[in-house]
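[audit] Reproducing an earlier prediction to check determinism. Same input, same settings, fresh worker. If the C-alpha cells differ from the archived copy the diff job will pick it up downstream; this log only records the rerun itself.
[audit] input (248 residues):
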Amino acid sequence: MRLTLRVWRQKNADTFGAMATYEVDGISPDMSFLEMLDTLNEELILRGEEPVAFDHDCREGICGACSLVINGDAHGPERTTTCQLHMRSFQDGDTIDVEPWRAAAFPVVKDLVVDRSAFDRIIQAGGYISAPTGSAPEAHATPVPKADADYAFEHAECIGCGACVAACPNGSAMLFTSAKVNHLNVLPQGAPERESRVLDMVARMDEEGFGGCTLTGECATACPKGIPLPSISAMNREWLRANRRRAR
C-alpha cells in the first residue's frame, strides 16, 4: 500500500504546530497503525529528520496509551484502540490525517503526545477504598451479588485512554469519571467513600478544565471498551443524592 500521511508536528507545548505531509510505501494491510508509524519514523531517521513522537506501550489494546485522532475519529474508523487498528481498514492511495487528542485538559507535549495526567488527578481525588491493614481478607468474606459484580466489571474495563474526551464536542470527561465512580460505588468495599468519592471526583474533573456533558453520546460511540452512556446518568444520580445528604 502507498499512503499519504498528514501528521500534526509540534516541537513542544510552547510552540505552534502544523500538519506535515509524508508519503509512505510498502505498507502491508496486516500492519497495525502503530507499525505503519514505525515505518514512517524509520524512513525519517534514515533521512536525518526528527521522528514523529507518539504514545504507545503494550500494543495489545489494554493500556490505552495509543491516543490518536485518525481522519477525525478517536482511534480511527474501527471501535478499537489505535494499536489494534490494522491498515486493512484503509485503501491503497488513501490520505490519512493523524492528530493528537484535542482537549484543553490534554495539552500537547510534542507532536502526537498529550499530557493526560488530569485523569490521574481525578482518580487520586476518590478512586480508592478504605481497607484495614494486615493480612488479606478471605475472598468470599464479603458476598457481592452477581448483578453488582457484572456492573462493576463492565465499568472496570475503562482503560483511561481519553477517546471519550477527544470525541466529545465539549471535551467532557464524564464517561471516564462515571466509569471510575460506578466501578467502586456499586461494590460493598467502596461503600465508606461512596458519597465523598462522587463529589470529590466530579469536583476535580471540573477543576481540570474539562467541558460540560450534554449527552450527545459521541463518547460512548468512541469508547474502545464499550463503557455505556447510561453510566453518566447513574453517576449524576449518585452526585445528586450525595449533594442532598451533605446539604442536610
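[audit] rerun output stored. Observation attached for the diff report: Helices lie at 33-46, 117-126, 146-156, 163-167, 174-185, 194-207, 218-222, 230-247.
[audit] end
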